[in-house]
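Tutorial handout. Part one gives the primary structure; part two gives the three-dimensional structure as tokens.
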Amino acid sequence: MLPEAAARRTEGPESVPARRTPAALAEMTDSEVVQCFLDGEPRGFDELVRRYDARLVNFVHRTVGDRERAQDLVQETFIRVYRHIERFDQARKFSTWIYTIAGNLAKNELRNRSRNPIILFQTIKKNWDADHRPLEWEDDGPKPDDLYRRRHLKEMVERAVAELPEHHRMVFVLREVDGHSYEDIARITETNLGTVKSRLNRARNNFARIVGPMIG
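Part two.
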């Protein structure tokens, strides 16, 4: 993503030749990769995209309910990261910073939709990633109708999450689906810790209330 921009960043007599292989970058922490990029290693940005592209698309997709639009918003997220990476405080977690940018773009998208009566937010069509999902809806016992059951449970979860209010939905997805800490969620949503816990508690209660009759 953004290969032309990364290349332009190192053009000129003072550019620093690439010194890190992709394999070497993959072994580094986020902060180390950011510093490599700031030091003139263009592949550092490619490594950040590799680490966060799919995760951010899934997060934004679950929030706005449109995968193609989510991909556009994540593209914009990386553009903003590229333009403002010098401002990143490396005492913070890079994951928190980039999720904050993506979360703000997702919230703006929903606000813009709410102003247009023709475009109503109806449902979240998301792909649940087992690798990053604290919520477990299935037992381990093999059943003949397992495939149907999984699809049915997934549909119920999607419908229930779609009915949550926007600010509840975001903290619910960040915590229960993506597994972020309360502190990270507070930073990403730019709210205090008490508000995060309150919203998450209400989101869980609402989710249980909505999904309960579906299961029953």
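Part three, for discussion. The radius of gyration is 20 Å. The chain has a mean pLDDT of 78.
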